[in-house]
Design a protein that fits this description.
single chain; 214 residues; alpha/beta; Rossmann fold; DNA polymerase, domain 1; 2 domains; 6-stranded parallel sheet; 9 helices; 44% helix
């Protein structure tokens, strides 16, 4: 298969922000009187509120106010990034430049709002690298539904089967696989389990491994 497009998740794939999400989910929950484990925080990656709220209620009971904790997490994390910035993952600039040189279209498919993606990527000169940007905030169903990858492929003028999707989270991989993309996982804070592997077409150790597929 000749791939004509690569669609990237952002958090944990291009930017080293997942460790911050985990840290500030735990801190925000603690401030509200709940003990959130690392595993709980990791399981919230790329989840829409519809997917996250049942988890919260199962963990903490009916008294857990998901939206209040999420809003506090966002504030704590935003304050930290405003002061310290956010680092790029190894290979981010290299793979985007490689794809540009090869004439392969690129898209960003992130659960984050577009302005947040711009805030993270623009200081590194990368936001304008993409031919299309799709935010989970602007589509009807967020990951793990396939909508965001379907829309990204549409904006690139490609069929999903012509696109490689690059993810680090189980919900993102399911989203991309359901859309019909060739799925690549680059693990960040956790390795895929046996169930995850059913939706992964290529397990990469670093972003530049994608060059092997082009």
């Amino acid at each position: 298969m000749t791939y004509k497009g690569v669609i990237f998740d952002m958090d944990g794939v291009l930017v080293d922000s997942e460790k911050l999400y985990m840290r500030f989910w735990q801190e925000a929950a603690a401030r509200q009187g709940f003990e959130m484990t690392k595993e709980m925080a990791l399981s919230l990656r790329s989840n829409s509120p519809e997917a996250a709220i049942p988890k919260f209620l199962g963990w903490f009971g009916e008294s857990a106010e998901y939206y209040a904790i999420r809003q506090l997490r966002r504030k704590l994390m935003a304050d930290y990034i405003d002061k310290n910035g956010v680092e790029m993952k190894p290979g981010t600039k290299e793979i985007l430049e490689y794809l540009r040189q090869k004439g392969i279209k690129t898209a960003l498919a992130t659960a984050s709002p577009v302005q947040r993606a711009k805030h993270y990527l623009e200081p590194h000169g990368l936001f304008e690298s993409f031919d299309a940007v799709v935010s989970g905030a602007t589509i009807q169903r967020s990951k793990p539904a396939p909508d965001i990858y379907l829309e990204a492929a549409r904006l690139l003028g490609l069929s999903p089967c012509e696109c490689i999707a690059v993810e680090d989270s189980p919900s993102g991989i399911v989203s991309a696989k359901t859309a019909g993309c060739f799925t690549v996982m680059v693990p960040d804070l956790s390795r895929p389990d046996e169930q995850d592997m059913k939706s992964i077409d290529f397990l990469a150790e670093e972003l530049t491994d994608i060059m092997k597929l082009i």
